[in-house]
Write a structure and sequence with these properties.
Layout: H1 21-31, H2 36-65, E1 67-70, E2 73-76, H3 78-127, H4 130-134, H5 138-180, H6 182-189, H7 192-229, H8 231-236, H9 240-292, H10 298-339, E3 361-369, E4 375-384, E5 389-394, H11 400-407, E6 415-420, E7 423-424, H12 430-435, E8 437-440, E9 449-450, H13 451-456, H14 464-474, H15 477-482, E10 490-491, H16 500-514, E11 518-522, H17 530-544, E12 548-552, E13 564-569, E14 572-577, H18 579-585, H19 588-602
Parallel strand pairs: 5-12, 5-13, 8-11, 11-12
Antiparallel strand pairs: 1-2, 3-4, 3-6, 6-7, 9-10, 13-14
Bound molecules: adenosine-5'-diphosphate and magnesium ion (MG).
Adenosine-5'-diphosphate is lined by residues 134, 370, 376, 394, 396-402.
Length: 603
Amino acid sequence: MGRGGGGHRGMGRQIVRARDARGSFLRLLRTLRGRTPWLLLIFALVISGTCLSLLSPLLLGRAIDALKVVKDGVSVDMEQLLRMLLFLLLVYVGNTLVSFLQGWLSAKISQDTVCELRRDLFAKLQTLPLSFFDGRTHGEILSRMTNDIEMVAQVLSRGVVDFFGSVITLFGALLSMLLLSGRLTMTAMVTVPFSFLLTKVVAKHIRANFLAQQTMLGLLNGHIEEIISAQKTVKAFNHEEQAIADFTILNQELRRTGIRARVLSGIVMPLMGLLNNVGYALLAGYGGWLAMRGDITVGVIAAFIQYTRQFSRPLNHIANQYNEIQSALAGAERVFAMMDEEPESADAADAQPLSAVRGELSFENVCFSYKEGEPVLRDFTLSVQPGQKIALVGSTGAGKTTVVSLLMRFYEPQQGRICLDGVPITQLPRQSLRQAMAMVLQDTQLFSGSVRDNIRYGRLESSDAEVEAAARTAGADAFICRLPQGYDTILSENGGNLSQGQRQLLSIARAVLADPPILILDEATSNVDTRTEMCVQRAMIHLMKGRTCLVIAHRLSTIRDADVILVMAEGRIVERGARRELLALRGAYWQLEQSQAALLGAE
Ligand SMILES: Nc1ncnc2c1ncn2[C@@H]1O[C@H](COP(=O)(O)OP(=O)(O)O)[C@@H](O)[C@H]1O
Ligand SMILES: [Mg+2]
């Protein structure tokens, strides 16, 4: 694959906006519904904080006006000066308190909400059908649970409040200015169109560059992750140099976008400063002239300069904040989309759990496909008597595992039905159905925790002694005892510190512990060596006694004594019968045994 060349994909991507920003916003507000009083309090705090900020220039102006130039020097109205300075102090302290409270409250509310959202989303994840996971990468789902939720938290805690604060500050400052002096307001407005233009034009470029940088960073991360997780393959194929070359391309591109983004954003502040200073100069000049004529006081000019600052700050930020909210809403939208995914169909209303499972299974004309138009099982019919041992064989991709997945109701067949003890499995509660079976799969899933906990996963309420007995039955006891802490050895992520065969033995022990009426072994011993397999085999014979067993095996030696062997090809059963009968047929099964014997002979 031309990974290096593909590295520029997505470069031209624009800001990701929510498709239905208004809808997502309203829905986000709805998640806050239970917290209305807190929200109102926050907005009240924002408003009062803004009012306090708007008050301070006024007080400052008054304080300055306490000094009056008279003929022989400066006269000071001490009382007014002190009073204004005291007020000013109170306003500043009050403002600090208010913004602290507001920050604390919005952090609390947003984290509470996001915590709930995370909980709901995770719970939702557990209800989704496997087909949902088939169509998505783990990374995609993970990023929904983490990044997108984090974005929602941002928009809740900062975005909306800041935006609201900016808007009212803008209008408040404008109003105060107008009240103080209409003529000075006009002067102050002279530079506004320029700064507006500057933010609009430059900000667009900056945003595009930051976005490009972000995208590059994502690609770079993806590359690093891929190379790290594929380290063995990379080394095995001597692809280190290629990996470095690919990395270098991405790295250089990231450097370029990084520089551009920084330089551009570095330009804005000085330019803004320049514009602001021009504005001040105009104000000071014109204001000074007005003051000399006695139309206004010097205090008004001072207050005015402060107001223009309060006015221009939100003006520069609003566009950015708006964009931030937009992309956060896009994140929220993705979260909500996952919330709205169709869950696994509910258990039938009249579903009755089976009290005692006999273990009779039947598939009646089952047709199934994962993707429309690509049938995996075609007209699959099978009936298994309680206690029978059925073997499924056939080439890879024949549909053997799919049979098991349908039986466990991981997927629903499009046609036909599957019955357990004569009851269609759609009429059983899923829990009861799945409790009736234990699965041992080729790729064993282990969880972080001790060996003991992992075996106990088969039946959570079992005692330590039962766990150990199950391990002995499964033939896992010997290797567990050789582990440094025996049964209390902590397994790393998915049992990375065990061999595949050892992992399988653990999962067999799990099945032993679960002690179900139906046992499903899907290439359960494909990863253990022949000697261990023989041990396991003995354990299995013991385990299978008195249970209905569905055994999928690659090595035919393991299923010789099955009651019925089914040979599958392309989703159909092409042969069925006991081994003796199948060999006599000299058909597909016979061929399979022949080729395996030839392979073994060649070894
Ligand atoms: N989750 C899935 N989504 C789409 N196709 C799948 C999925 N699992 C299996 N398949 C396809 O279904 C066919 C049968 O797969 P499977 O039942 O696993 O075969 P077997 O176990 O006999 O090797 C294969 O062609 C495989 O590509
Ligand atoms: Mg399989």
